[in-house]
């Protein structure tokens, strides 16, 4: 029976549970992802942070008797030991354990913990430092010394141990002990700061000699072991000597530094410091020598500070010449950079050479010239060589005029003519300058040989002219004749050469040879300036007063050309002949010219002839001849013609002037039409004037 109610009760409970309502879950309306996403890592971190925030602080425990204290110590020690047992390599656990024992004044226990920790990791620097600091705090000096000795023996390259050890000894007043520690340290050849700390330690106790000996040892290490081959170490040593008024020692240090680094490892900071030291000693000449020595040897891009200090020095203590030297040095640096960037920039070389010529010795100038001429143009084309060849010209002129070295000048010219590719092109200027140089040296055979070689290798008009001019100055006329013959064989179309040759013969009084030369010249099939040649021949015959030959020349010339200027010149010649028949001859030539020019298409030339004829008649003619020439003058009219562009399209109209000559029978209908048009235009103007003035018509009718 007892079971019944229990079963009934269980059934009722289950029935009640079945009837209990399950809460509805809220439906999510917007299932889109949020703009700011939260990761699982962030959720866990926030939970951990809030857990720490919610932890209540540990309760404060008040210890009232020794038994409770011992119990507290036992629990803490057990905690520390458990932590150490879990991970022996975590040194922070050891340090916390030792510091806790130290706070309880349990020094022997703390010392034991540190020793145990050192057995675990003796390379840990922090462990040694904390151990030694604990001993020093508790005034256990010998223990601290023992720890420092063990530390520097175990880890000699940890500079912090040495610094702490020497500082402790110095604070204790044990100067000898501190010095001994420093000496032990220096045996390990430490870094630069360690040596300076030792030096400063000695200086604090006014031990200048000891400090100097340390510097010497330091420099010795630099020289032998090359541990710190740095300029600043030498500068510090020198400044140390200067500070203590040992100026001779300081200068000697600088000199040793310059000697040690040599020219391969020069540093501008060393020379700037050396120069400033000498400047403080009022040794201005030594300063100038130091700066110049350094500037000549240090690469320019590494000497900017040197330039700046040298400029300041010269402005303070130098004269105008010194300041100019500085400016020259700066400009030399700029030119060096330009020619280094582009060795074939010949304009930069010219500027550079002009600078060094104005302020440098001969050897320096020659060196720059040699560097410049070594940059031969890469392409054998004359346009690339035109600027380059002037480097040789300037070099030779410098050697001759400035250096007064004739032998070197000859070598320069010879090297230049050997370098030029004469089969492709040449430079007549070089050959002529070479010959003129040899003449100035009174060495005529070499000058002739040079010019002869030039004509043989690469004949040019300029070379022939220069050689002929040279022989003319020397009054070697037979040589001049031979040269002219060679010249005309080389260039028979050159009218100037024919004229000069004939003029030479005229000057020498050989008229027949001169005439024969002119005849040969005008018989050439091709000439560059035939009009100049004919004019010269005609002028030659006029000077010889050979008027018949002159007329024949004009007739021969007119057979070749009917140019209007030839006719006008012929007429003026007849006018100037001075004979009785000169006027009639002149008029006859104008008549012939007018007939010949009728078929000429260039009407302006015919107009020019008629104007010249009219001028002649106005001065020398009669009324009949004047009236006749007036009738021959053309009518000037304005016309229009179509223009066409290059593509054949219509480009509009243009106006031009045309001439209508009365003698041209073909143009007579046009003249009649023109006259009728003029008459009609005149009548139209009169009728318009009558309409504008009716009173005048009435008066005329009444009258």
From TrEMBL:
<dbReference type="InterPro" id="IPR055430">
    <property type="entry name" value="HAT_Syf1_CNRKL1_C"/>
</dbReference>
<feature type="compositionally biased region" description="Acidic residues">
    <location>
        <begin position="688"/>
        <end position="703"/>
    </location>
</feature>
<feature type="domain" description="Pre-mRNA-splicing factor Syf1/CRNKL1-like C-terminal HAT-repeats">
    <location>
        <begin position="92"/>
        <end position="382"/>
    </location>
</feature>
<dbReference type="GO" id="GO:0000974">
    <property type="term" value="C:Prp19 complex"/>
</dbReference>
<keyword id="KW-0508">mRNA splicing</keyword>
<protein>
    <recommendedName>
        <fullName>Crooked neck-like protein 1</fullName>
    </recommendedName>
</protein>
<keyword id="KW-0175">Coiled coil</keyword>
<keyword id="KW-0677">Repeat</keyword>
<feature type="coiled-coil region">
    <location>
        <begin position="540"/>
        <end position="606"/>
    </location>
</feature>
<keyword id="KW-0507">mRNA processing</keyword>
<dbReference type="InterPro" id="IPR045075">
    <property type="entry name" value="Syf1-like"/>
</dbReference>
<keyword id="KW-0747">Spliceosome</keyword>
<dbReference type="GO" id="GO:0071007">
    <property type="term" value="C:U2-type catalytic step 2 spliceosome"/>
</dbReference>
<dbReference type="InterPro" id="IPR003107">
    <property type="entry name" value="HAT"/>
</dbReference>
<keyword id="KW-0539">Nucleus</keyword>
<feature type="region of interest" description="Disordered">
    <location>
        <begin position="1"/>
        <end position="28"/>
    </location>
</feature>
<dbReference type="GO" id="GO:0071011">
    <property type="term" value="C:precatalytic spliceosome"/>
</dbReference>
<dbReference type="GO" id="GO:0016607">
    <property type="term" value="C:nuclear speck"/>
</dbReference>
<dbReference type="GO" id="GO:0071014">
    <property type="term" value="C:post-mRNA release spliceosomal complex"/>
</dbReference>
<feature type="region of interest" description="Disordered">
    <location>
        <begin position="683"/>
        <end position="703"/>
    </location>
</feature>
<feature type="domain" description="Pre-mRNA-splicing factor Syf1/CRNKL1-like C-terminal HAT-repeats">
    <location>
        <begin position="392"/>
        <end position="555"/>
    </location>
</feature>
<comment type="function">
    <text>Involved in pre-mRNA splicing process. As a component of the minor spliceosome, involved in the splicing of U12-type introns in pre-mRNAs.</text>
</comment>
<keyword id="KW-0597">Phosphoprotein</keyword>
<dbReference type="Pfam" id="PF23231">
    <property type="entry name" value="HAT_Syf1_CNRKL1_C"/>
</dbReference>
<dbReference type="InterPro" id="IPR011990">
    <property type="entry name" value="TPR-like_helical_dom_sf"/>
</dbReference>
<comment type="similarity">
    <text>Belongs to the crooked-neck family.</text>
</comment>
<dbReference type="GO" id="GO:0000245">
    <property type="term" value="P:spliceosomal complex assembly"/>
</dbReference>
